[in-house]
Design goal:
Elements (H helix, E strand, L loop, with lengths): L2 E12 L2 E5 L8 E9 L7 H46 L7 H47 L1
Antiparallel strand pairs: 1-2, 1-3
Helix pairs in contact: 1-2
Length: about 150
């Protein structure tokens, strides 16, 4: 059978609110009892801890896999945007215009295409580094818990 511990105290109404004391605090002090249940047997929580650790591990894996997918999608988006902007810039040379204007515009367009490529290549490079780190972290995590 479980054990119950009882604690007695006095409760009074004071000027600033309720007063709780181990001794009567006024003539109208009310004796109260708080009971605490103490189980006879405590169960082993080791299995709970193992289950919790496994759940946390699975959540960490899911978070990392989600971040990896996000980084991969960003890379695809940057590459697609790069190709679209590059195509749009090169299309300027295909507009109906005379050779002299095309020649003058050609240098500007080539420089702009180079700027576009550099901008997106840098963003892709940054995402690939993030992706590499995430994959490394995922591999390390899986090795640690398996």
């Amino acid at each position: 059978m479980a054990k119950t511990d009882n604690t007695r105290f006095y409760q009074c109404q004071g000027e600033k609110g309720i007063i709780i004391s181990q001794f009567p605090c006024s003539a109208d002090a009310e004796l109260k009892t708080v009971s605490t249940f103490v189980p006879k047997e405590t169960r082993d929580t080791q299995q709970d801890i193992i289950q919790l650790n496994q759940t946390q591990f699975e959540q960490q894996i899911e978070v990392l896999e989600s971040k990896i997918k996000t980084a991969q999608q960003k890379i695809r988006n940057y590459q697609r945007a790069k190709m679209t902007e590059r195509r749009d810039e090169l299309d300027k040379l295909e507009k109906l215009m005379d050779q002299k204007t095309k020649k003058a515009l050609s240098k500007t367009v080539k420089q702009e295409v180079k700027n576009i490529e550099n901008k997106y290549d840098e963003q892709v490079k940054e995402q690939r580094l993030i992706l590499k780190d995430l994959k490394s972290e995922l591999t390390s995590l899986k090795k640690r818990y398996q």
